[in-house]
């Protein structure tokens, strides 16, 4: 009997660590399945999705640039995925495809429950930031300051973020240095949800700004391809608790696995597999 196919659709997909992580979990539970990364060119998207239906895939993850585009191909999506207009996990139930979004939950579950999180600052308003914003209140965040460069659709974006956060977030101009510096002094968690620093030594915050963070503040950079961005290095020099995007990746993968198989994921093992393959 042919193993059930699971996978990831993305472009590019070759750098993904998800296959290592998911196949290790399937092996641990002796599940007759295999997880594969499908690198799908945008021009081939609809043909490829039709192919996945023919393959009778059991489920798949969705990454850039298809989290929104996949919605039209699904039979049902969760209320959270509807709010975000983004899906990152799909499961076949009967002959129907159901999509959910585990990005926000994966992020917040990667943070210790003992970490203070009443006042949170997020840099960026992209898809990753929006997922974190949408689930922040559920995990005990009381005030959320979202900083971004000014855009033409600023008012519309302000309203969207306030609604998405259930009223706890406000959008502020990143170029308002005085306000940003004031809020940094009160932050329990600082999150970089942009790609700044992924491929170079750039940072949205100066060393002097990082110096203004309280000693209990946790600094998180959602980038995981660059283990230690300049932001994390500066925060580490201050002795602050830091975290890159790998714990979030593991938690998201664990939530996907549990959704597909109704079995508890082994977070420690998944983390070990990821760390080993990052070396």
UniProtKB/TrEMBL annotation:
Keywords: Amino-acid biosynthesis, Aromatic amino acid biosynthesis, NADP, Oxidoreductase. Shikimate binds at residues 16-18, 63, 88, 103, 224, 252. The keyword Cell division does not apply. GO terms for biological process: amino acid biosynthetic process; aromatic amino acid family biosynthetic process; chorismate biosynthetic process; shikimate metabolic process. It catalyses: shikimate + NADP(+) = 3-dehydroshikimate + NADPH + H(+). GO terms for molecular function: NADP binding; shikimate 3-dehydrogenase (NADP+) activity. The keyword Isomerase does not apply. Its EC number is 1.1.1.25. Belongs to the shikimate dehydrogenase family. PANTHER family: BIFUNCTIONAL 3-DEHYDROQUINATE DEHYDRATASE_SHIKIMATE DEHYDROGENASE, CHLOROPLASTIC (PTHR21089:SF1), SHIKIMATE DEHYDROGENASE (PTHR21089). Involved in the biosynthesis of the chorismate, which leads to the biosynthesis of aromatic amino acids. Catalyzes the reversible NADPH linked reduction of 3-dehydroshikimate (DHSA) to yield shikimate (SA). This is Shikimate dehydrogenase (NADP(+)). It comes from Leuconostoc fallax. The gene is aroE.
